[in-house]
Write a structure and sequence with these properties.
Length: 168
């Protein structure tokens, strides 16, 4: 377990996708930063919302975009496709929950510019309960000495850790 471990939105997202990926990220085994899919994700973030782009980063939160709708502040998680939508929603819920702890009430949206989608995410007690369970699980997995074994699924071939998990 890395010494300065803190749960981040990316770790919550990774948990929803693959528990092994979560462990690898938590132990700072980052994939090649130039890998195409990751680079594409960055490009979409940079290009699609240039005019209203306002990434904010504080504590361990890194929010893609903060904007306004009427008098409501909206925080957005920007994704390249809706393939891992539940993971994106839970990541956003994590940010909303942390900001609520700081006294901010806001709404959330997952935005998928390539598909022209904006999906509203609502913080409520039920969502909060689910998030808390997930956060406990995230911590337990990250504290383990070794990663969960790789389980090959369709998503693996698009994963930046593919070579690491299955080479040889
Ligand atoms: S390649 Fe598959 S098993 Fe390995 S980290 Fe990625 S999603 Fe998980």
């Amino acid at each position: 377990m890395v010494s300065d471990f803190k749960i981040t939105g990316n770790l919550v997202n990774a948990y929803m996708v693959c528990h092994r990926k979560l462990w690898l990220y938590a132990h700072q085994l980052n994939p090649d930063p130039e890998m195409d899919l990751l680079a594409l994700g960055r490009l979409i973030n940079e290009e699609s919302y240039k005019r209203e782009k306002k990434e904010i980063e504080f504590d361990n939160l890194k929010i893609d975009l903060v904007t306004k709708d009427s008098d409501q502040v909206v925080i957005c998680e920007v994704k390249k496709s809706s393939k891992e939508l539940e993971a994106a929603k839970m990541q956003l819920l994590f940010y909303m929950d942390r900001l609520r702890h700081k006294g901010l009430k806001l709404s959330g949206e997952v935005r998928i510019p390539k598909e022209r989608k904006k999906i509203a995410v609502e913080w409520n007690e039920e969502a909060k309960r689910k998030l808390d369970e997930i956060l406990q699980d995230v911590e337990a997995i990250c504290k383990a000495e070794t990663p969960p074994p790789p389980v090959r699924r369709g998503l693996c071939k698009h994963c930046a850790f593919f070579e690491f998990c299955f080479a040889g």
